[in-house]
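# step 3/5: fold
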Amino acid sequence: MDKLNWHWVFFINVPLGILVLGLIVFGYHESSFNAKKIKIDYPGIVLLSASLIGLLLGLQNLSKQSTSFMFWLIPFITFAAALVFFIMVERRAEDPLIPLKLFSNRTFSIQITTALLLSGVQIGFQVYFPMRLQSIYHVSASIAGLAITPSPVLWLITSFFVGGLLKRFTPKYIVLPIVVIQTAFYVPLVFAGTNFPIMMFYVIADITGAGLGIIITMNTVVAQELVPKGNIGTASSMLTLGRTLGQTVMTGIFGLVFNFALNQGVKANKSLTISKLNNAISSNTPFRNGHSLQNAINSVLLNGFHSVFMIAILLFVILIVLNLFDNTKEIIR
């Protein structure tokens, strides 16, 4: 947003929401069908919600230096306790919110976890690519935003190849080469300085989007194929939950790591403040190579970005190891 503040971003949702509401009200006509009466798993809903809220609050509080030890410990205790009770309730529920028996299939569990971790990487590059371009290269917000534009385009294109790939390879041999390639392109981001070519951010966005288009689409297809017909909707919703949870949790973790690196940099350089770093992130001022303060700011910011993408690489490594344990040897059709 070069001319307007960030609040205006949310107004994009209003006309789209009105449009969708109109389509549902006037264009969607549900035919009658015989639906069996189900028992809603209210205890499962409450416990899962409490667990996720506790986790998110705990991660949020970790980034606050003024927060006391107990203030961030209590949400994590809530998360753990609610999760334990949720598992106990789901094992006895007549119609569980999440049928835990689905996770007895290793390939299904790996598909959910893969979607979760890759979605975490996705939110990392979507947030920190534009931020880096603005703060280090001092390009406008519009130009910085264009760095992630190739990703959804390539996502759409590569998703059409999933069917053909699944006819020839098992999921493991689709995921592994893609993640290895993505890791190779992310490694330079851990060491890149102020002279790192801007074009490389567009290339990495291409690689990220293309890989996500294949893997996330494959996760959906495979997960739905592995569960009984009555659980197809559940499998789809679990993938959606996994992706949303991966993005939300990793947003907190990336923010925690980035803020920690900035705070350490401020402590090491008394001429810097968090306020100066925040101004540098959103500044359009051209980079002045001979300015010592600007160089110090860039050094601290780069250390923060390096830390973020180190975490992204760690997620890739976990993905590689995880998929190596996928024991599916037959083509999933």
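# step 4/5: annotate
The mean pLDDT is 85.
# step 5/5: archive (pending)
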